């Protein structure tokens, strides 16, 4: 029984350790999905619009992080001004990638 | 492989335990069970109700475990044969690239032709990655109203031949494809004994030595990197082509690095975006940091993250993927530089996997506090992640 438990534990540890390797092979070999036409949703009030002009924090699926001032929103993307080393870069993030969009508390617009 | 050996050892131990129990009842049954195939079922039946010498559970485990071990062994053999075949195909592919390039160079008076045929597979692979991971792909632009398609991703400089001098005997120029074809490919493990470093290469990954990597860099007119110790590449992603990528492995031997740093991603991002240019210790695309496509994560003396950068003069962003493995006297760096937007999941998993599998020998693993005999680096882990200095 102990040997069986040991084997099961060992196998589970091995499985976790190789999860990245499995992921890599899946990403390399995954077939391209068929392109789908994007349906246009009827226009309605966009909650992101309320944050226009404010400093925002954007977290993306996959643990990404972007900071900037929200300058524009549309149905496909949000647009940020990102301050980097004394200059401002315009940048657009696809809405499908965004997990959380929130204002940065206490930051000046 | 190790799990398979453990299973075989467990089966052996259970077999010995079973024989020992049978031997306690009858030495003859024990001997016959040991040497006569199938005889072990006789004591199973005979001692079925004898709590001191019953071996039915042992035999059941041996039967099930034996079947599993047999199936596992077959699978390992097939995997090994597939690996050998793939390695041969990989070598053949490299050699064919060299032959094709040589022919093109002859026809064009020493100017190498791009490896168009060889880039198709790589382009298709990365196109697949982009389509399956559309994150941050299509809308990076210099102007919010003018998104740039990923189809306009900047191409890497085409491989070019080194022109022979006019007053000397014409020599065969070292071209990208020739340097690539002449490179020695390592699989399984890549060791640098003088540094006490061992890279355990996952299946489907190959390594090139620093010497071969520098030869290839020379043909691409890229500056050589004294800290580079190897390249690691996936066997299905060729080195040539606009969509190709590879992992640079570097050893930063400035000493023990303090890892007791703030690990808040937002703080790190703000610090990194205000860092002065040209001070980075890590391989990278330069330019400006737009954000973290994957925020830094820290675990077991490793750190891994993905930066989205806008290189100087570029109109579309690229990804720099980094993983650091801290050692007693330095830092082992794994970086994919200039990966196309949208491929962060692939490159992040690749650098993280290699960093986790790297081994630093000779007691050179990372201690949490500065060792007395080793010098401390003039920067911290936070400085490396933020590329502040």
List the keywords.
heterodimer; A: 109 residues; alpha+beta; 5-stranded antiparallel sheet; 2 helices; B: 389 residues; Protein Transport Mog1p, Chain A; 8-stranded antiparallel sheet; 40% helix; elongated
Describe this structure in words.
- The complex is a heterodimer of chains A (109) and B (389).
- Helix content of chain A is 25%, strand content 35%.
- Chain A has 109 residues and is of the alpha+beta class.
- In chain A, strands 4-3-2-1-5 form a five-stranded antiparallel sheet, with no helix packed on it.
- Chain B is an alpha+beta fold.
- Chain B has two domains: 2-85; 107-118 and 174-386, Protein Transport Mog1p, Chain A (3-Layer(aba) Sandwich), CATH 3.40.1000.
- Chain B contains ten helices and 13 strands.
- Chain B has helices at 2-25, 27-35, 41-46, 56-107, 116-132, 176-182, 210-219, 265-273, 344-357, 381-386; strands at residues 185-186, 189-192, 197-200, 205-209, 228-234, 247-252, 256-258, 288-299, 302-310, 318-326, 331-340, 359-360, 376-380.
- In chain B, the strands form three sheets. In chain B, strands 1-4-5-6-11-10-9-8 form an eight-stranded antiparallel sheet, with helices on both faces. Chain B has a three-stranded antiparallel sheet with strand order 2-3-12, covered by helices on one side.
- In chain B, a hairpin with a 4-residue loop joins strand 10 and strand 11.
- The longest helix of chain B is centred in the N-terminal third of the chain and has 52 residues, at 56-107.
- Chains A and B meet through helix 1, helix 2, strand 1, strand 2 and strand 3 of A and helix 1, helix 5, helix 8, strand 8 and strand 9 of B.
Q: Into which percentage range does the β-strand content of chain B fall?
A: 15-25%
What characterizes the major β-sheet of chain A? Answer: 5 strands, antiparallel
The structure class of chain B reads: alpha+beta
Q: What is the fold named in CATH at topology level of the largest domain in chain B?
A: Protein Transport Mog1p, Chain A
Helix percentage range of chain A: 10-25%
| Order of strands, widest sheet of chain B | 1-4-5-6-11-10-9-8
The CATH class assignment of the largest domain in chain B is Alpha Beta
Largest interface: A-B, 47 and 63 residues
Write the element-wise H/E pattern of chain A from the N-terminal end onward.
HHEEEEE
Summed up, the domain count of chain B is 2
What share of the residues of chain A does DSSP label as strand, in percent? Answer: 25-35%
Seen as an oligomer or otherwise, the chain set is heterodimer
Weakly predicted, low-confidence segments of chain B:
101-166
């Amino acid at each position: 029984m102990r040997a069986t438990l040991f084997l099961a534990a060992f196998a589970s540890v091995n499985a976790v350790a190789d999860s990245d390797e499995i992921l890599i092979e899946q990403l390399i070999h995954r077939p391209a999905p068929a392109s789908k036409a994007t349906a246009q949703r009827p226009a309605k009030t966009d909650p992101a619009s309320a944050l226009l002009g404010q400093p925002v924090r954007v977290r993306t699926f996959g643990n990404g992080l972007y900071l900037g001032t929200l300058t524009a929103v549309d149905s496909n993307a949000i647009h940020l001004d990102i301050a980097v080393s004394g200059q401002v870069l315009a940048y657009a993030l696809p809405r499908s990638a965004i997990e959380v969009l929130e204002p940065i508390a206490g930051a000046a617009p | 492989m190790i799990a398979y050996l453990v299973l075989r050892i467990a089966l052996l131990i259970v077999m010995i335990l079973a024989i020992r129990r049978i031997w306690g009842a009858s030495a003859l049954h024990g001997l016959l069970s040991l040497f006569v195939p199938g005889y072990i079922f006789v004591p199973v039946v005979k001692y079925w109700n004898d709590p001191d010498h019953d071996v039915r559970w042992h035999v059941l485990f041996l039967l099930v475990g034996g079947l599993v071990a047999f199936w596992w062994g077959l699978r390992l053999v097939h995997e090994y044969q597939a690996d050998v075949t793939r390695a041969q195909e990989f070598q053949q592919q490299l050699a064919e690239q060299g032959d094709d390039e040589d022919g093109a160079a002859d026809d064009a008076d020493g100017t190498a032709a791009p490896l168009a045929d060889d880039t198709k597979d790589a382009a298709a692979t990365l196109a697949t990655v982009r389509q399956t991971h559309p994150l941050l792909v299509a809308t990076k632009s210099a102007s919010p109203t003018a998104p740039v398609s990923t189809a306009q991703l900047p191409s890497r400089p085409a491989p070019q031949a080194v022109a022979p001098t006019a007053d000397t005997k014409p020599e065969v120029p070292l071209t990208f494809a020739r340097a690539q074809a002449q490179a020695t490919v390592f699989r399984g493990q890549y060791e640098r004994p003088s540094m006490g470093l061992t890279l355990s290469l996952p299946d489907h990954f190959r390594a090139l030595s620093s010497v071969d990597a520098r030869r290839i860099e020379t043909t691409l007119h890229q500056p050589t990197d004294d800290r580079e110790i190897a390249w690691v590449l996936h066997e299905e992603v060729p080195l040539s082509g606009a969509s190709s990528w590879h992992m640079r492995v570097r050893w930063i031997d400035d000493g023990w690095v303090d890892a007791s740093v703030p690990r808040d991603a937002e703080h790190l991002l703000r610090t990194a975006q205000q860092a002065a240019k040209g001070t980075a210790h890590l391989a990278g695309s330069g330019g400006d940091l737009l954000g973290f496509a994957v925020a830094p994560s820290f675990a077991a003396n490793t750190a891994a993250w993905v930066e989205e950068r806008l290189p100087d003069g570029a109109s579309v962003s690229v990804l720099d993927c980094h993983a650091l493995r801290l050692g007693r006297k330095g830092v082992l760096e794994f970086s994919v530089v200039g990966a196309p937007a949208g491929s962060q999941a692939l490159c992040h998993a690749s650098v993280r996997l290699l960093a986790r599998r790297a081994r630093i020998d000779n007691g050179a693993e990372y201690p949490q506090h500065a060792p007395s005999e080793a010098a401390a680096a003039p920067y911290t882990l936070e400085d490396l992640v933020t590329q502040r200095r």
